[in-house]
Specification:
Bound molecules: beta-L-arabinofuranose
Shape: globular
Radius of gyration: 22 Å
Strand order of the largest sheet: 21-24-29-26-27
Number of domains: 2
Helix content: under 10%
Number of helices: 1
């Protein structure tokens, strides 16, 4: 009961606080492309860094996150996996910085992915489409007629007149062009974009007060920065304006800028959560961006607190179903500990060993099956657990570093697709670090 009360209070409390940076802590995320759609929510389409840190090689899937107040973020679940891409390299991985756009009732998701084993020589820009912003995406081929050289980091901008523009580029060259109405073919020729200083990759285009902005990552050694140029049309000409976001600690950076409920936000990534200098285990962050009267951007201050709530809604937890860890099937060294401060006065410990697990069986799911799993646990910094649902490896999840393995202060949330019916299993397996699990809740989100 005590833990349940804490859970409710923390949900209520979060209505009036700050997002914190990084604002997604359950998995590693990078390359945030943020959009506000007609349902009034802000959606972030990032890429997903996968443990162990190994360049950007293992990134094989995308999750989407959404919010209506900038503080409470909903994991919308996995929307695409490399194993669904029929033209993709057989080894998988390399699902790099994506973007998404809405036009005429369809959401178009664009993602860079190599077609061959020699990944850096075989990039293509794939598409998947859906009638919903963050689920039911189906692969729909790739954009034809682009140069294979550094064909990464797609960005699509739809202007106020409804015309769509497509950008991509890495390795120092940025390209831009028009998209046909079908959003899958280039209209005419792509052009190389001139006027950018020290362009590396990560193009993002937006419009504010009639001015077009093109932002990108530079080549600042081992710590790319974000720069920008402005123009009078979506394809320029562009005038270089300067740096708007300094080094974040990561080799790379990639960002997006969007207006939501009257404020402008700069999304980017850093390595604050993993503290891993090499190999890229990155996390997405958001801070306010301010503009001068002449439209130029002020430097973004990178904060730990993140941005303030812009909502007042109290989130209901009434549909959450609770499963106590001590009632799960256990294996390896997983052990029950009596503790009056834990929910049910018990929790499970010794989840730090790879053969240790707890498994919840016979879990019921409704027809649509999309549920958010909240895992209430404590853990030391950088501890991990692996989530396996119905035998499918969903990801390594981060425990929150509470600094105290006795107090159940942390929660990790993650959305999965269960099968309709009663036979679902959810297994949490120890990976590294000391994780104690108190209970999980499952909340349907459709
Ligand atoms: O995340 C993989 C790659 O690293 C992206 O495509 C680049 O923008 C850089 O962030």
């Amino acid at each position: 009961m005590a833990t349940r009360l804490f859970y409710c209070l923390s949900i209520l409390f979060s209505q009036n606080c700050f997002s914190q940076n990084p604002f997604i802590t359950s998995i590693y995320t990078a390359d945030p492309s943020a959009h506000v759609w007609a349902d009034g929510r802000l959606y972030v389409y990032p890429s997903h860094d996968i443990d162990p840190a190994k360049g950007c090689d293992l990134m094989d899937r995308y999750h989407v996150f959404s919010t209506d107040d900038m503080v409470n973020w909903r994991d919308e679940g996995e929307i695409l996996n490399a194993n669904q891409v029929s033209w993709g390299r057989k080894e998988g991985g390399f699902m790099w910085a994506p973007d998404c756009v809405y036009k005429n009732g369809i959401y178009y998701f664009y993602f860079p992915h190599p077609a061959g084993t020699d990944w850096n020589k075989s990039w293509k820009i794939g598409m998947a489409t859906s009638k919903k912003p963050a689920s039911d995406f189906k692969p729909a081929g790739y954009i034809k007629g682009l140069s294979a050289n550094a064909m990464i980091d797609p960005c699509v901008f739809v202007d106020t007149d409804g015309k769509a523009y497509f950008y991509y580029g890495g390795g120092g060259v940025c390209h831009g062009g028009k998209l046909k109405d079908n959003m899958m073919e280039i209209d005419g020729e792509m052009q190389e974009i001139n006027g950018l200083v020290d362009f590396h990759e990560a193009t993002w285009v937006f419009k504010r007060n009639g001015i077009y902005y093109l932002t990108y990552a530079d080549n600042n050694p081992r710590e790319n920065q974000l720069r920008y140029a402005t123009g009078s049309s979506p394809l320029g000409p562009w005038t270089y304006r300067g740096i708007y976001l300094g080094p974040t600690g990561c080799d790379t950076d990639q960002g997006s800028i969007v207006e939501f409920k009257g404020k402008w936000y700069a999304f980017y990534h850093n390595k604050a959560l993993s503290n891993t200098g090499k190999g890229n285990l990155r996390s997405i962050c958001v801070d306010i961006v301010n503009f001068n009267d002449d439209g130029t951007m002020q430097m973004v201050e990178q904060t730990k607190s993140g941005v303030a709530s812009v909502g007042t809604k109290v989130i209901s937890t009434k549909n959450a179903v609770k499963y106590e860890a001590e009632n799960a099937t256990m294996g390896g060294k997983a052990t029950i500990v009596n503790d009056t401060s834990a929910s049910g006065s018990k929790y499970v410990t010794n989840m730090d060993l790879a053969d240790s697990y707890i498994e919840f069986k016979n879990i019921k799911a409704k027809r649509k099956g999309r549920v958010t799993i909240n895992i209430y646990h404590s853990g030391t910094s950088y501890s991990r657990i692996k989530l396996v649902v119905n035998g499918i490896d969903c990801s390594y999840l981060n425990s929150l570093p509470t600094g105290d393995t006795e107090n159940f202060k942390g929660h990790t949330y993650f959305t999965v697709h269960l099968s309709p019916g009663k036979n679902n299993t959810i297994k949490l397996i120890g990976v590294n670090g000391n994780t104690n699990i108190d209970y999980i809740t499952l909340t349907p989100i459709d």
